[in-house]
Design goal:
Elements lengths: L1 H14 L7 E3 L17 E3 L3 E2 L7 E7 L2 E10 L3 H16 L5 E2 L9 E15 L2 E14 L4 E8 L1
Parallel strand pairs: 1-5, 2-6, 2-7, 3-7, 4-7
Antiparallel strand pairs: 4-5, 7-8, 8-9
Length: about 160
């Protein structure tokens, strides 16, 4: 009896196979060459915000319009709020359209303030294969005038 139990346990141990491998992903955005005018004041990029489901490192995907699934074996190297904020910061620094781009509140007045909310950041399955849905609400304000310089959706 003991041998049968041990043989059954060994069979189950070897039949289960390996654990799935976890894959990690990041974004690398290259800024275009530009001769755009430089804004005369520094830019402060505030921490990005997002709904709770977009503020974690698991990739999200939709198999239907109303169903969202979490893929625990495909992950971002950091939560999308941090990942997109760091990519946008690097992008704007390389673009060179602001005198300075900072994640820390500038001491110099006036300055521009950029805030962003992640509204969608997911993979979607389509008839043509895989696609991605990315949607942000971005606002650019000027600190001394308390006015909106630009606001809108970026997709």
């Amino acid at each position: 009896m003991y041998r049968c139990v041990m043989a059954g346990m060994l069979f189950l141990l070897f039949a289960c196979g390996q654990m799935p491998q976890t894959h990690y992903y990041t974004l690398n955005v290259s800024p275009p060459k530009t001769d755009a005018a430089v804004f005369p004041h520094p830019l402060w990029i505030k921490n990005f915000t997002a709904a709770a489901m977009y503020d974690q490192d698991c990739l999200l995907y939709r198999s239907t319009q109303h169903e969202i699934k979490f893929d625990h074996y495909r992950r971002w190297v950091s939560p999308p709020t941090d990942l997109l904020q760091s990519q946008l910061t690097a992008y704007l620094r390389a673009l060179g359209i602001f005198r300075q781009v900072s994640l820390i509140l500038p001491r110099q007045q006036p300055y521009y303030v950029l805030s962003a909310e992640i509204l969608q950041f997911e993979e979607s399955g389509t008839n043509d294969g895989r696609g991605a849905g990315v949607r942000l609400w971005i606002e650019l304000n000027r600190s001394d005038l308390q006015e909106v310089v630009w606001q809108g959706y970026v997709e």
